[in-house]
Amino acid sequence: MRSAAPEGGRRTSRPAVRTATALAAGALLLPLVSATGPAGAAEPAADSLQHAFAEAAARYHVPSSVLLGVSYLESRWDAHAGAPSVDGGYGPMHLTDARAAVARDAARHSEADDDPRGDAARPVAAGRRAAAPQPLPAELPARLRTLPRAAELTGIPAARLRTDPAANILGGAALLAAEQRALGAARDAGPAGWYAAVARYAGAGDASGGRAFADEVFATLRNGQERTTDAGQRVTLAAAPALRPDAAQAKRLASAIRQAVAPAARPECPASVACESVPAPYEEFGDGDYGNHDKADRPEDLKVDTIVIHDTEGSWETSLKLVQDPTYVSWHYTVRSSDGLIAQHVPTKDVAWQAGNWYINSHSVGIEHEGFLAAPDAWYTEAMYRSSARLVTYLSRKYGVPLDRQHILGHDNVPGTTTSTIPGMHTDPGPYWDWAHYFTLLGKPFAAERRAAGDVVVIRPDYATNEPPYTGCEKAGEPCAAHGSEAVRLRVAPRADAALVADVGLRPDGSPSTTDVNDLGARASTGQRFAFAGQQGDWTAIWYLGQRAWFENPAKHPTAFRTSGATVTPKAGRATIPVYGRAYPEKAAYPAGVPVQEVSPLPYQLHAGERYATGGSVLGDYFSAPGYDPATHAVVRGTDRYYVIQVGHRIGYVRAADVEVRRGGA
After folding, report:
1. What is the arithmetic mean of pLDDT over 140-145?
2. What is the mean pLDDT of residues 182-199?
3. Using CA atoms, how far apart are residues 471 and 396, in angstroms rounded to an integer?
């Protein structure tokens, strides 16, 4: 991961930021005066949030840089208009109030009931995949209830800590000061002397995750940061290149980690993250059944060429409990929200049951990100983004996975295996996962090139200011709160009032897609590459699901850029060609004893003259794993070659025999 550079343009205005004053009349609560004044007054100055950090630091005697650094690792200083994160954290300091957040939550990413194994030859029984996990454990861990503790320390009502950014910052400062006191450390020790308190801030209760979080905070302090927040506030953290943690505190924390970590198989993780092993079982049960993954020997028997990004529908504790159940399903890693701690469950050589598409499962690593809030507008912490990006970079280097959007997929980009499975496919992590920021952390930012023309369009709206209207975040049909998004919406004509394009896989009658937050039928995602199909004024067209699809792309505020790249088009003389959801081998490739898997086309067709961006080709194969004994497993390899294409919001496959490949302007 590259060190984070200053990034982010000015964002659209959010609810006003308030500033703190130094008035304390015999009460613990530091009164807050709204920066906006009476209703109708001017919006706050662009440095109001910076002053709020300074005033909270002075009130609780916390170094201002430490407070800023912790907040950046939690929220990048954003307030998110009072909405909670995926693990119930609020405001710039990510104060957690899980019970309140769950009470607010009403929607899930989708009503998906896909088979996470995705192999028609041996499907996972519906009873093992339909039940939604309980989002929270009966007894909440400390890391999920830091906001109530901040309310006790400050005297500020919990509701205000959730919605008022300046109050939220005071709560975070109070928590840090309390941790420093509990450690018996001097409050005037300077930033270096707050290392241990920072490690304890997230309330995770374990030294390993805390140290990783503190190390990221101190790296941020050394590098410095500045950006404009989601409320239009400009915040700056000056770099301190020579800063290092207090040596004695670092030594004690390292000792605590050595004592706490039980001997276990070393997880497959980069050295730069906190990682532990929480193995998923491989066990037989019931009448010939087993779970919860399949033994393999990747990459010797199957190439790993894809990484799938998910979010859980349970807390860290709940997710770890479920993945250790042999009757449940599996994934390779889970990333914790509060501090970025990673747990590995399935060795990457083995096949986890995670994506709902057996071909994708056979060739991918699945990473779940803690998120018990299923409301699609819940946000993700910076600590989680950074830790996840480090893990993906490590896996990319280990297996040679290209860092692009046809190989680093969201679960919402995984295709259905057959027509009947399309409606049940998952839609996480959703339109509020910041792919542009994620790929910047991966060291592969989506940057426009100098050339103005090209045959490939790369989707790249400004996340902060791109706010397409969505519905259904909290209640079906009701508008979602305005929110930055990584997606653009696609229409049948270059007009804002034109109908949204249709997805016949979701609506066989050809009716238009909708603005529902879980409806992917007319949506293109940041970093995805599509073939250019035309330009009219401020509108750009791409080829999408067998049709020309238009999106607004004004020159002054572009939402995409053009570049060169490889595309495929139906061979001459072919009016249409089929699209597939998996790259299975031809019938003749199957040996005796291995059931032939039907190569079933999806309902989408590519028409003569249309072009689709490709991420490369693969030879068809099928991993046959019919039972518990790995000796019964086999890999069927064919000679049919397929091209991976960006057919719609999800990827697809076309036979090489059906298409011509064109490169550049050819």
Report:
1. 90
2. 96
3. 35
Mean pLDDT of 191-216: 90
Strands 275-277 and 342-344: parallel
Supply 88's token pair: 């119930």
Are 22 and 55 in contact by the 8 Å Cβ rule? The answer is: yes
φ and ψ at 299, to 5 degrees?
A: -90, 10
Query: Which CA distances in Å does 360 have to 304, 363, 552, 651?
Result: 9, 5, 32, 11
Q: What is the 3-state secondary structure (H, E, C) of 579-620?
A: EECCCCCCHHHCCCCCCCCCCCEEEEEEECCCCEEEEEEEEE
Helices 207-223 and 247-260: crossing angle in degrees, nearest 10, is 150
- Would the pLDDT of 608 be above 50? yes
Its pTM stands at: 0.91
Is 249 within 8 Å of 196 (Cβ atoms)?
A: yes
Angle between helices 165-182 and 64-75 (to 10 degrees): 110
The CA-atom distances, in angstroms, between 139 and each of 135, 144, 181, 315 are 12, 10, 26, 12
**Tokens 């996962």 found at:** 433
Q: So what's the pLDDT on residue 483?
A: 85
Both tokens of 567, joined, read 């595309």
Residues 6+ apart with CB under 8 A from 556: none
Measured distance CA(473)–CA(87) in Å, rounded: 16
Q: Report d(CA 342, CA 321) in Å as an integer.
A: 15
- Map tokens 């998906």 to a residue: 112
Question: DSSP characters for 501-564?
Answer: PP-TTT-TT-PPP--BTT--TTEEETT-EEEEEEEETTEEEEEETTEEEEEE--SSS-SEEEE-
The answer to whether the peptide bond before residue 263 is cis (omega within 30 degrees of 0) is no
Q: Residues 6 or more apart from 323 whose CB is under 8 A from it?
A: 278, 280, 292, 330, 331, 334, 345
- Would you place residue 666 in the very low, low, confident or very high pLDDT band (cuts 50, 70, 90)? low
Q: Are 485 and 467 in contact (CB under 8 A)?
A: yes
Cα 152 from Cα 175, distance rounded (Å): 10
Q: Which amino acid is at 100?
A: A
pLDDT band at 71 (very low <50, low <70, confident <90, very high): very high
- What pLDDT score was predicted for residue 8? 37
Q: How many CB atoms lie within 10 A of CB 203?
A: 18
